[in-house]
Design goal:
This protein is an all-alpha fold and 468 residues long. Helix content is 69%, strand content 0%. The chain has a domain at 19-107. The chain crosses the membrane at residues 33-51, 93-116, 184-210, 222-245, 257-281, 368-388, 414-433.
């Protein structure tokens, strides 16, 4: 073995060992809040340095604070723009794509699974530190050895074989299933992340390549098709809302096919992610017949992955997401169908653009219409939708069977809205009925005035503001 090969071998042995040490140190000694803060801070700083020292498309360079703000916005998928997107060069757009990928909810949740596996390994290690052969001595097990033993234990069919293993290592079958379940789930999440975005990237690239109108837009702006496709799909899946064009998706509002290709990623990476993930695991269980997948589905709470929900909860989540979207589409089309923002679109294009707009309103942030031209009533609806958490359900989810109070609740009690919800509903209705006055007399009729009046009337009914 020559000197170069020896150094290469040492480096290959050195890197995994120290990466594993860093992962275990982060999992066991750092608070989750500090860990996440450090991750996003380091990611943002690296992104800022990359943007600063890379060459922009134009000769005018952005100031350091704007670049750092953009880096933070991309890594935290906040979609707050400080610099026009068309200022960035191709290399800078690729860097922003990487930041959005590494800062997306699905990717960071996968990192949580990796840390959870290390924590579980440490728990098992603490349980087997007492040597069964000598109660005064400790077993010379290390965390890496525990992982190898947990993975290598086969399915034990004979009772004698089981008792021998349990007496020597004290690893139960549940430990093996949970460890393997965490490993399998990590692989499934990563595969889901890569496959969904690769398929979306491929379809969008093909569409732009073969549709002249979409290809001409990118050609006029000097944006590469591959860069645009990858950037947009990653941004949409991560619910960031960045698009390489200054006008966001407004320049593509007539390209209904492109909107339909991007639209699924709004849901697959956000509101419908738990349902899709559970469906993927169910398919893998049926195809592979691995007991680990059965364990994941039946013991999703023990796994500790927040995005893994019960089958019933997933069904209610899908129904809620679709129901909210249908309500938004009906209200949006009823108010904006013949407005100025729809000019130049046929019926099919209007419908697809409306569906794309309302689906993005909750979290993704992409837009095919100028939000400043949308009526106030619809803006209020969008604000309410943005306020709702991604996994909100308006149907009864009874997962805690031991909770008597939850079991005694009726379906009606689950569906009753809060007083704040009723106030929002009435504000939206008033804004819709007074949409003409809102446009013609914005001084006396504004969303703020309507909101204040509705709340004041409500407080007056309760006797709080009788003196007004």
């Amino acid at each position: 073995m020559n000197l170069f090969t020896k150094k290469q071998h040492r480096f290959c042995c050195f890197l995994p060992h120290h990466l594993g040490f860093l992962a275990r140190f982060a999992a066991f000694h750092l608070h989750p809040l500090f860990l996440q803060l450090s991750y996003f801070l380091i990611l943002s700083l690296l992104g800022y340095l990359g943007l600063k020292f890379s060459k922009p498309r134009t000769s005018v360079r952005s100031n350091d604070f704007d670049l750092f703000y953009t880096s933070v916005s991309a890594s935290t998928v906040s979609s707050m723009v400080a610099v026009e997107m068309e200022v960035f060069s191709n290399s800078q757009l690729i860097l922003l794509t990487l930041l959005m990928f590494l800062g997306g909810e699905v990717f960071t949740s996968m990192l949580d699974l990796v840390l959870a596996r290390y924590k579980f390994t440490n728990t098992v290690l603490n349980r087997v530190t007492t040597n069964p052969f000598s109660p005064k001595e400790k077993t010379p097990f290390h965390a890496n050895q525990v992982e190898l033993v947990l993975v290598s234990i086969p399915h034990l069919e004979s009772e004698n074989h089981t008792s021998t293993h349990s007496s020597n290592t004290k690893f139960s079958d549940t430990d093996r299933l949970k460890y393997n379940g965490l490993s399998y789930l990590t692989f499934v999440v990563f595969s889901y992340l890569i496959v969904v975005q690769f398929v979306g990237f491929s379809l969008v690239s093909l569409y732009i390549t073969f549709i002249p109108s979409a290809r001409q837009v990118l050609k006029n702006k000097g944006i590469k098709i591959v860069t645009f496709s990858l950037f947009t799909i990653v941004s949409t899946f991560a619910s960031c809302g960045f698009v390489p064009t200054n006008e966001n998706m407004m320049v593509f509002k007539k390209n209904s096919g492109l909107l339909l290709l991007i639209l699924p990623h709004v849901l697959l990476g956000n509101t419908l992610y738990p349902a899709c993930l559970r469906l993927v695991i169910m398919v893998l269980k049926k195809v592979s017949r691995r007991e680990e997948f059965s364990y994941i589905l039946e013991n999703f709470k023990d796994i500790g992955y927040d995005h893994l929900l019960s089958a019933l909860h997933c069904c209610y989540l899908v129904a809620t997401v679709l129901g909210l979207n249908v309500v938004q589409i009906v209200m949006f089309c009823s108010v904006e169908w013949n407005s100025d923002i729809m000019k130049g679109l046929n019926v099919y294009q209007k419908l697809i653009a409306s569906i794309f707009q309302v689906s993005n309103a909750r979290h993704s942030g992409e837009s095919v219409f100028d939000l400043s031209s949308i009526s106030s009533a619809i803006l209020v609806i969008f604000i309410v939708m943005m306020y709702l958490p991604p996994y909100t359900t308006y149907l009864p989810v009874r997962e805690h069977e031991n909770d008597v109070k939850r079991k005694e609740k009726s379906v009606v009690e689950y569906l009753v809205l809060s007083q704040l919800s009723y106030l929002v509903i009435f504000i939206i209705v008033i804004c819709m009925t007074e949409s003409k006055s809102l446009k013609e007399d914005p001084l006396n009729f504004s969303v703020l005035n309507i909101t204040l009046e509705v709340i004041r009337q409500r407080l007056r009914e309760r006797g709080v503001l009788n003196w007004i």
